[in-house]
Batch of 2 targets.
Target 1
Amino acid sequence: MDRLNDYHVHTFRCGHAGGASRDFVRRAIERGLVEMAFTDHVPLYFLPESQRDPRLAMREDQLDEYVAEVQDLRREFAGAIEVRLGLEADYAEGFEEELERRLARADWDLVLGSVHWVAGGWIDDPATSPPRFAAEGTDALYDEYYRLLAKAAGTGFFDVLTHFDLPKKHGHRPERPREDAENRAIEAARRAGCAVEVSSAGLRKPVKEAYPEPRLLSRIVAAGVPITFSSDAHAPAEVGWGFEKTLALAREAGATEFVTIEKRRKLARPLPPG
Ligand SMILES: [Zn+2]
Ligand SMILES: [Zn+2]
């Protein structure tokens, strides 16, 4: 998809992505993207060391080599595509200083803010999250998720909020949208100047719907929150995947611009014709 960016791409270090990092860049070029950002999962700083599953995020000792590899790729592909240095960082309430210490270890172009850890567990784990919706209540989990997302935006650590309506991943939805909770997260993003990613990843998940869903994306755009594009690629073939669809969704939601980010400064660009 011509002239868009993919700002959510993983590497093998997270333990659940495969392929050579260089092949992710090649794929981005083939797709005609103007920019891509590697944004691998930050080490699971908020869990006790014995519980930091290497299949979920990179290890502490991999952070520096990750940064070095992305910087090498940026130099190697200069002129063909902009390769940005990013990180997907979990927000975990109460562990802000721990996160700040990891963020201080590189000069990031952009930091993605993700809330996967909600009320003491993963909100999107295929094995453990479905029983939680039954036991803890779908409304309550959504409300808590959005409370944390709003709080994440307010920390100022993040340039982009990821998969805005992540709790729907396996098909769990409240009977009626939790609009008040959603609105608080949207307002927090607006105040903080955080962008929201339009992510094709949800189209590959059981829910079969982009993040955020159209109803929500329209409200995000109407609130003046900038958008950016992402695939959440965990394999080279997923870079830029589904962007025809997400570009159309962005247009239908009323967006006319998207942002690119360099050294944490946003630049608005017109959306390419759909
Ligand atoms: Zn991942
Ligand atoms: Zn991701």
Target 2
Amino acid sequence: MTAPEVVILGAGVMGASTAWHLARRGVRDILLLDRGAAPGAGSTARATGGFRAQFATEINVRLSLLSRAKLRSFANDTGVDPGYAPYGYLWLATTAQELAALTEARRVQHAAGLAEAVEVTPDDIRLLNPAVSLDGIVGGAWCPTDGFVAPLALLAGFLAGAERLGVRVRWGAEIERLELETHGRAVAVRTTTERIPCGTVVNALGAWAARPMEGTGFALPVTPLRRQVAPTVPTDVLPAAMPMTIFVGDGFHLRVRDDRVLLLWPTPGAPGRPFDDAVDDDWVQGVVAKAHTRVPALRAIPVDRPACWAGLYEITPDKHAVLGPTPGVPNLYLINGSSGHGVMHAPALGQLLSEIICDGKTSSLDVRPLRPERFVERDLNPVSELL
Ligand SMILES: Cc1cc2nc3c(=O)[nH]c(=O)nc-3n(C[C@H](O)[C@H](O)[C@H](O)COP(=O)(O)OP(=O)(O)OC[C@H]3O[C@@H](n4cnc5c(N)ncnc54)[C@H](O)[C@@H]3O)c2cc1C
């Protein structure tokens, strides 16, 4: 078999975005591999679809702004509506310290060009989301251009667009490892059934990205972290256009999607079982108790326990993505570790990786903060536990 020019490992939103952007740049002979039987086998299908530019670091704000511009042309570019709905993100603070963190993040956001992010008072919050109890709320932050996207529509658009441009997608292909030359180039991808020679490889394996890196000399620090979601039964108790509403203190948040209210609350994963994506009854009880206190209208609306789901975030030590060539293996590129923001950032990251692969550098955005070497150099991005 002749070597495909580019083999992309993983056909989630990152792999699909990379394939489409490379094909648009004129790269021919791209092969996308995924072990799933169909699109959506990984985290992309589990995402709730939040989109925001209110982050605490310049690089994440800028990734969102680039993604947002691309979402606006996505239907034209791919023929699929990405479901971008700017219903806003509303952050709620219960202490002066939380409010100060929001203020500091907003300074970064404004400097990066997100002018419409503002501070809000409890009176503003009452208008923006009347369903939320203002008990203990001292203020918050609001950005009207944040909101939602449809994760599977983004994936479908990138995949369909890529296939129209000649990208081949092979489902049911379980990747086992990479074959390297002694002087540090990837020469083939080994699946359970075949050896696929390659010119260039892209690792877009989401929460599972670390394992195939064994033997490359670079320990990719991406670990899985379970995130659970509790949907209510179908209800119109809250409006479809309600903003994403997030409590800074414990990360509890809620949104309306497909006529249900989705309740979320970040907790540590299952101890000792990093890839476990079962939903815990205790967690469901906990998130429901929070919802009942904070959004009294939900006391009358039961959670749909069989419809609860969980999935895996792909976490890095500084909770920022990893983008670029692998140290020591220059034809193995990484697009990993978005740490829970991968759907919203995939349009930007796919474009940026195509620039790196085709031009040797990015032109749309300075992505130095995302370089893989930072973990070796111990030059990590600041981690905000709040946003
Ligand atoms: C509950 C939840 C809510 C989320 N909410 C949001 C949100 O609101 N906004 C947002 O932006 N992000 C959100 N995310 C994060 C988002 O889902 C991820 O960041 C994003 O989907 C990562 O995309 P990916 O393509 O890297 O990974 P994936 O979609 O996981 O794709 C990786 C692919 O690799 C394949 N694969 C893995 N191992 C192998 C192997 N050995 N061989 C072959 N194929 C393999 C998998 O089948 C999969 O299709 C959420 C995640 C979860 C779990």
